[in-house]
Design brief:
Hint_dom_sf, about 10% helix, about 40% strand, nine-stranded antiparallel sheet, mainly beta, Hint domain-containing protein, Hedgehog/Intein_dom, 4 helices, 25 strands
């Protein structure tokens, strides 16, 4: 038995506005095979709900298609009855429409959830990138195989983070372009870009709270689930052959004082340099981000897509490319690291 909790949107929050299949108009999102490319949906802004299921088949990190008996709802959050067998039915890929009706922005994958083994009995959907209330989205493509990871990503700092600068600690929300930030490897470095995004702090978007002292931090630190913390120690060298590692905050939740802390709304901040750097957030080392055409292939694709979706003002790939600082641990590696760290 593996309990998995993830963010689910009610299917009725995404309604068909227009389609070459006229019978779909005015109805909620359904499975991919019955939804033609070019179908336009409108999102009403209804918040996602945390739904929990018991995953007993396949990969415990993946919500599989065609395995209804191995994915049974234990907390349907009012969207679906408990004890219902569900599956990740299919994937519909959409893009936002601009005021002129042109598709724009990143491709967003909507994973459609069905119940009781019935393809057309759709009760909700998940998304790998945020949807914006009142925005219309057009279907670009899709897949009848819906198997998807439970994870979703937003790599950012929470609003009360204090970052070490040239003049001392400064609230992350007050950092501006050209400010000099203290980095672990390269001393003071100028900020090249800053972005802010206010989102619902529930489900996959909920922040991770690191209590004061939990990782040596002077005060409580709030970051997004995928934001990576930096560690340099003998344990990492022993386990992975590298003394310098990056661990996503959500994978540190097995440590005392580190937990996911849902909230109605949260503002995340991101800032970037000419290269990937390690900065000091509330007294402990944590990553920054950088983006270029080359770096998209170097870093995880999920965080990069999320970054582009959250921050459309991002400059067009003008930053220099360089290696990621430290080895980014996978989920199972981070779990092993936490187990040894707790026992030490």
């Amino acid at each position: 038995m593996v309990a998995r909790t993830f963010a689910v949107f009610d299917s009725e929050s995404l309604v068909v506005q227009s389609s070459s299949s006229g019978g779909l108009v005015g109805n909620p999102i359904i499975n991919n095979s019955d939804t033609p490319n070019g179908t336009v949906f409108t999102f009403d802004g209804t918040a996602a709900q945390n739904v929990t299921l018991d995953d007993t088949s396949g990969d415990p990190d993946t919500f599989e298609d065609d395995q209804t008996g191995g994915h049974v709802i234990t907390n349907g959050a009012g969207l679906i009855a408990n004890t219902t067998g569900v599956e990740a039915e299919s994937i519909i890929r959409v893009q936002a429409l601009d005021p002129n009706g042109n598709a724009t922005g990143p491709l967003i994958s909507l994973t459609v959830f069905s119940q009781n083994g019935v393809t057309g009995d759709v009760w909700g959907f998940g998304t790998d990138l945020p949807l914006q209330a009142g925005v219309s989205y057009v279907k670009i493509s899709g897949s009848n195989i819906g198997s998807s990871s439970y994870d979703d990503f937003i790599p950012c700092f929470g609003p009360n983070t204090m970052v070490e600068t040239e003049t001392g600690p400064r609230r992350v929300g007050d950092i501006a372009v050209r400010d000099q930030i203290r980095t672990l490897r390269n001393g003071l470095q100028p900020v090249r870009w800053v972005g802010h995004a206010t989102v619902s702090g529930i489900g996959a978007l909920a922040p991770v709270e690191i209590a004061a002292g939990a990782l040596g931090n002077a005060r409580a630190l709030t970051v997004s689930q995928e934001h990576r913390m930096y560690f340099e120690d003998d344990l990492s060298d022993y386990l992975f052959g590298s003394s310098q590692v990056l661990i996503a905050a959500k994978h540190l939740c097995g440590l005392p004082g580190v937990s996911i802390a849902p909230c109605p709304v949260i503002t995340y901040t991101h800032f970037m340099f000419d290269r990937h750097e390690i900065v000091f957030a509330n007294g402990i080392p944590s990553e920054s981000f950088f983006l270029s055409r080359l770096s998209v292939g170097s870093l995880q694709s999920g965080p990069q897509r999320e970054l582009l979706a959250l921050f459309p003002s991002l400059p067009d790939a003008t930053l220099a490319f360089g290696p990621t600082v430290g080895t980014a641990l996978k989920r199972h590696e981070a779990t092993l690291w936490c187990r040894y760290a707790t026992a030490a």
